[in-house]
Write the structure tokens for this entry.
Amino acid sequence: MGNQWVFGLHLVLLSMFLVSTKYTCLGAQNSTRSCHERERLALLKFKQSVIDDFEVLSSWVGIGCCSWKGVRCDKVNPYLAQLRHLQHLDLSGNNFYGSQIPKFIGFFKQLSNLNLSYAYFGGIIPHHIGNLSNLKVLDLGSNDMLNANDMAWVSGLSSLEHIGLSDVDLSQANNDDMAFYMIPSLTYLSLRGCGVSSSDLGLHLNSCKITPTIEHLNLRSNYFEGQLPHFF
Ligand SMILES: *[C@@H]1O[C@H](CO)[C@@H](O)[C@H](O)[C@H]1NC(C)=O
Ligand SMILES: *[C@@H]1O[C@H](CO)[C@@H](O)[C@H](O)[C@H]1NC(C)=O
Ligand SMILES: *[C@@H]1O[C@H](CO)[C@@H](O)[C@H](O)[C@H]1NC(C)=O
């Protein structure tokens, strides 16, 4: 068919905690339902990076990843089979028990939509997310244990339209104002409950560098004081 965007490998896990993984990528499969090594390793990496108390992923052993629970393989050109063609990844609403967001997410260069909200991710946001230059929607919101040490990575997200960081702790983060002027396409920004103060953002909010495309801005539940910046 020559359609490169036929989704080949679907992973739909429906189970207790490690659930509602809506995961689509370009698949690897020949008619033999053999399993592409690269995808198999990526799935195993994913398995290793999460805590699976309920053994939802217990069938993910051996080489035949097409028969693993929740994985479905289609017939797609094997040469196109690489997870770097993943376009949508939605792991929202899971419980990753404070695990870090895996750094290998930075390899999914074609990703345009990444939703990791409400998933109990913790630790520092990996700067590798900044490699996702095709990303349009990034939702990291409502992960109370998640924080950032530096937000300079947002400058790599040159296609970003929507970024949700509600309840992510940015109080210790450097460059958390960068979202305001480093992403030219941004229309939606939520920093609700991020623990930021006027001094974190003030400097650039008074400059003319602010992205003009912003339509939705949520700065609720932070520590602002003094005059409203010129921007408003
Ligand atoms: C793919 O299928 C073709 C024919 O159906 C076969 O000749 C080839 O060996 C298969 N390749 C793999 C990697 O299984
Ligand atoms: C991400 O997923 C959550 C929960 O499923 C949903 O409420 C939210 O709207 C999604 N974010 C985006 C940007 O679509
Ligand atoms: C992504 O970004 C990180 C840190 O910003 C960098 O070290 C890494 O080499 C980049 N590449 C990939 C594929 O993650």
User: Anything to note?
Assistant: The pocket of 2-acetamido-2-deoxy-beta-D-glucopyranose (ligand 1) is lined by residues 30-32, 34, 78 (CB under 6 Å).
